[in-house]
Amino acid sequence: MSRVSVPCHVKGTVALQVGDVRTSHGRPGVLVIDVTFPNVAPFELQEITFKNYYTAFLSIRVRQHTSMHTPAKWVTCLRDYCLMPDPHSEEGAQEYVSLFKHQSPSMTFPKWLSHPVPCEQPVPLLEGLPDPSRVSSEVQQMWALTEMIRASHTSTRIGRFDVDGCYDLNLLSYT
Amino acid sequence: MLQEESDISLIIAQIVQKLKGSNLYAQLERQAWASLQRPEIKLESLKEDIKEFFKISGLFPLPSHPAAPPEHLKEPLVYMRKAQGSWEKRILKSLNSMCTELSIPLARKRPAGDQKELLNKWNEMGTDEPDLSLFRPVYAPKDFLEVLINLRNPNYENGDSLSFRTHLGLIQVPLKVKDIPELKECFAELGLNTGQLGIDDSTQVPPELFENEHVRIGQKVLAEQDSAAAQQYIRQGSPTALRAELWALILNISSQPEDILYYEQLKTNVIQHDLLVDSLIYKDVKLTASNDDYYFVFEDYLYQVLLCFSRDTSVLSHFAYNSASPPKSYIRGKLGLEEYAVFYPPNGKILSINFFLSVAPLCFLYHEPSKLYQIFREMYVRFFFRLHSISSHPSGIVSLCLLFETLLQTYLPQLFYHLREIGAQPLRISFKWMVRAFSGYLATDQLLLLWDRILGYNSLEILAVLAAAVFAFRAVNLMEVTSLAAAEAVLADLSTLKVMPLLQIFLFATVT
Question: Model ipTM?
Answer without folding.
Answer: 0.80
